[in-house]
């Protein structure tokens, strides 16, 4: 095994670019047996999301953006109570059994959890986190392609089983040229990344068995004594999870959402994806068949992995501090899973030259796409990706990011902002740290710093309509209150929500909110106008946003209003894909004309 690289940044970039090139060679071509995954499955939260994912997968296959000869599936959670990504995993196993019977015994399967509504990154809410656009590639890469590229070496060194990952994170790693990550041991195998103790409090942390190597290697196969889920720093010390870096390791170590540990000699190993062999998957499936219906949220990481390793104890099953909603069944279900999996091994693949990036919030999205020079270097991210827009000076360190969009040369986009799948006219000025998605802004518009604008096509009573969510990038759409008298505690663009309703001439009644009337939030507030054209939709929503910022009245009474929750119900995926395709074709034609003029 190769010792830790002298220049980890360079080797990480080279390894990442090699995987991207290899995946690019497979796009649109039939793959040989054992060369790629047998099955790629994506989870969805409900029927609407399932349909949206299937439509997008179909488009990608038609346009030859994915390897061919692979079974691509979308598995939807059963209707009823939320079951978490652990429940989704169990549900996916049942779907595989129904579709393939004993045949899936021999398959390598990639399972991507993408069943959330992306409330912290709402420009991914309509079409899904796994279809989030990235600023590179032609055609543009989305998170799905990046996942497939980064895991390109896994299937050929994997025994039949399932690799479980999430839709909104990126794992980059470098190992020796002649080395491969092997998933060939019974039980579970997880990747581990060196991280600061602070990062460890929001991830899973491995307590590894003692190791006798004198120096760190890029790739180490280790055994895990026990797994801690989002532990306190005190717990990390208590259970001997904290490692102490030698000088050479400290100099090399920095990464992703993990701040540099150059000045900190202590670190922990945190989780990302994990694999389970087929025998373990069958054991979980038999358990799911026996219990029938799940009525509580199971965490694939917290509830499966904490049961593993010789040091695992049942205490964690009673700890509900990290649970958003505590159901009566939860503790009992956790204990049953613990007894089912107890004694199963947890093997750990330690990647000392690796980075883990999370792109699940507006803050992370803006930082990684505009300001993060590391990720830009490693993935080859572009400031202008497959777009028509005047060049941004390369000397600028905090750039804007334009993805598959057409911007008039007289429009302006301030540093730190992202524009995707949009058209901006000549008199449009976008402030700093904004997100503009799927929009068409043709009239004069000044978007204040930290604005969030995302347009959706809707199908209402068989008619095509449009609505645009407009708020602040830092607004907490998930924060909820139980009663109408408490909605003063909600904030819209930094302003008391009650004051906003007054500005918009809207009355505080139960009818103001969709869905659960004891869970009132910006997510289910009926405040976004429905319009007959995309440009009118954006213009109207910008007026309501400007009214709040300028504290000037703008009545929404004459409009049909929807909540974001309702917009997702009425979304017209086909029309949104068509709009993106129109932009794609126009950019392609423009490029061909430019090539002809320069040749």
From TrEMBL:
The entry's keywords = Nucleotide-binding, Nucleotidyltransferase, Transferase
Q: Which InterPro entries match?
A: Fucose-1-phosphate_GuaTrfase (IPR012120), GDP_fucose_pyrophosphorylase (IPR012887), Trimer_LpxA-like_sf (IPR011004)
Residue ranges of every copy of the GDP-fucose pyrophosphorylase domain listed in the record? 101-532
Q: Which domain of life is it from?
A: Eukaryota
Q: Name one GO biological process term.
A: GDP-L-fucose biosynthetic process
Q: Which GO terms describe its molecular function?
A: nucleotide binding; nucleotidyltransferase activity
The record ties this protein, via SUPFAM superfamilies, to: Trimeric LpxA-like enzymes (SSF51161)
Keyword NAD among record annotations: no
Q: Which PANTHER family match?
A: FUCOSE-1-PHOSPHATE GUANYLYLTRANSFERASE
Name the chain's protein. Answer: Fucose-1-phosphate guanylyltransferase isoform X1
Species name for this entry? Answer: Neophocaena asiaeorientalis asiaeorientalis
